[in-house]
Description:
Elements: H1 2-52, E1 55-63, H2 67-76, H3 86-90, E2 94-99, H4 128-135, E3 138-142, H5 152-165, E4 169-171, E5 181-185, E6 188-196, H6 202-215, E7 220-226, H7 237-248, E8 253-257, E9 265-268, E10 271-274, E11 279-281, E12 292-300, E13 306-315, E14 321-323
Parallel strand pairs: 1-2, 1-11, 2-3, 3-4, 6-7, 7-8, 8-10
Antiparallel strand pairs: 1-12, 5-6, 9-10, 12-13, 13-14
Amino acid sequence: MKEGRIKKIFPLVILLASLVAIGLFFVVQKRASDKLAKEKELVAQTENDKMNKPVKILFVGDMMFDRYIRQTAERKGSDFVFAGVKEILAGNDLVVGNLEGPITDKASVSVGSEIGARDNYIFTFNPDVASELWKNNVKLVNIGNNHILNFGNDGLTQTKENLQNNKVDFFGDPAGEKRIAVWNQKGLKLAFVSYNQFEKDGVAKTLADIKAAKQMNADEVVLYAHWGTEFVGQSDAKIKDLAHGFIDSGADLIIGSHPHVVQDKEQYQGKMIYYSLGNFIFDQYFSFETQQGLAVQLEIDTKKQTTFKELPVTMKANGQTIFK
């Protein structure tokens, strides 16, 4: 009798267990589906938040990694030089600076040279510098300056290879292969061009580059200029005329370097001109002025309105740069 009842109940138990299992399966599936939907919604919201945040680009001045800076990096590690500015650099979408010399496998001739001697002004930077730039968000550099050819065409070629191998972009190539850099992010398109006072026909080349950049339909054309008189705290009339001419030709912002000290700024035709940001990484500790630099943060909102923030910097005698 019991066996008969068990035989009748057993299929019902199996059916009930199957229904429970199926129910649990759908509950688990529903929870997994809801979780995935929430994750997708969170990702979409995060991406939307990113797109709605303003773009921040930080401009810094001259960067020189030979002489005492090279020795400091060899003694204390290649990341020591950037340690004091790393956090702020990382807080920008892009950092742009002037690379004041080539990155090569050549031995330094300026280390240990007498101050004022010819060799003291011939620079080459350790190949590790390229990776340090990238790690510290300096992912775009101007190479249109009076030191980039210190080790000739071979030095220039090595520089470009070292930068490219470390995903650091560049512009102002004196060989003419890459004079303009284009940067796209959050629906913005920026074109970067260079003016090198020490380049033959530099003005004509820069005017042609500005014209070409405008034809790319860039939202902003940024000119990084290597010009002016060293250690003089004020731009002169000739440089001002040049700057005004570049703005009249289509440049939207001008950032200057080379004087090794911070110079004046002005607004012309609604466009900002910073005549010199001074040094950013350099071993010129002989005066207060050469140890004080300026970083400029360009912020562009979703309506493509621009604002500027100025961040003073100091080069310490231990080889580090810090933000004040």
